[in-house]
Amino acid sequence: MADLFFNLPPLVQMVLKGLAVILVIFPIAGASSLAERKVAAWIQDRPGPNRTMVIWAKYIPILGPFLQRLGLFQLLADGGKLLLKEDPIPGHVNKFYYVAAPIVALIPAFSTVTFVPFGAYWDTAVNAMRPLMLVNVDIGLLAVLAVGSLGVYSVILAGWASNSKYPFLGSVRASAQLISYELSLTLSVVPVLLWINAPGQEASMSLVRVVELQSGTGFWSGTWFGMLMPVSALIYLVSMFAETNRLPFDMPEGEAELVGGFHTEYGSFKWSLFFVAEYAHMLVGSGVFVLLFLGGWNPLPWVPLASVTQWLGLQNWPVIVGLLSIAIFMVKTLFMIFFFMWIRWTIPRFRYDQVMKLGWQKLLPLAIANLLAYAIGFAVLQN
Hints:
Elements lengths: L1 H5 L3 H34 L19 H8 L1 H13 L10 H19 L5 E5 L4 E5 L7 H9 L3 H10 L3 H32 L10 H6 L6 H4 L2 H4 L1 H14 L11 H4 L9 H26 L11 H8 L5 H27 L7 H31 L1
Antiparallel strand pairs: 1-2
Helix pairs in contact: 2-4, 2-14, 2-16, 4-14, 5-6, 5-7, 5-14, 7-8, 8-12, 8-17, 12-14, 12-17, 14-16
């Protein structure tokens, strides 16, 4: 099957990869929306969506009521409503940019997925693990940070094109928030780059290389970077909340002050595209955090997947190893998404001045001090 795919023309391969991304991201975004409502209900001690039912499910004894209580039919109903609902364009907006903004939001959200490795399999030809990813580039981390940061342009475009004061204020907040936290986010991953580009090692910015250096059995080679660099992990985590506009950093929306923020003038399908992009950014940010600080697809510190494969004698079963690695990676990523939701329904929204103060006066100096400390520490260790 793999040989058949790689023998296809490059354009056909690109189209198939794009369809794969779309078919994965849209269901995950929908499932995340349902999960967020269920997590909110759990935190607030209520059942959540559990009323919607389809006719045929009534006649399935156990599965039907279970899916109803799970809220799956509510997800299908909401999706159908957003697809079929009338989608008018207000008369006062700049129509071209108003329609383009939701589409622009999806492009960086979907593009970053292609650079993220999501598992590995055992290659018997070289007797080693090989990554599973759509595009294997040596600047994967740089590509994710660079392309992911373009998502704010859709928010700015939506706010400006709406020709309304509240969306415009939301877009201004989004641009200020990106500048404030992008610096800290970038500085937080520099210690990881210093570690993987130590003297004597091949220079790389590959996310696969990051996981490989957490895949040993020795103390230094098997310790996850989240344990070696906890301050970097904390800075990245806080900045990721701000970058994805999630509570308590959702200043571009700010319902209490800006009605709906940058998407006030949007509804129906266009409105849903913004939130598909938000959940896609949350998925990619969580996946990159897992790769950088939680060992990627390795099950435990000092217990790499390659060792587990050899212990279980799965060298000749690459499909099983690949599925196992994807499962481990997804469990960690879904836990991070749950953490996003948990924080949203636990911590109240910050004021705008508090967000700016945290970014410039607290987080950025901490990121600079953290980088200097690790740079000095690496220099001492190498000498």
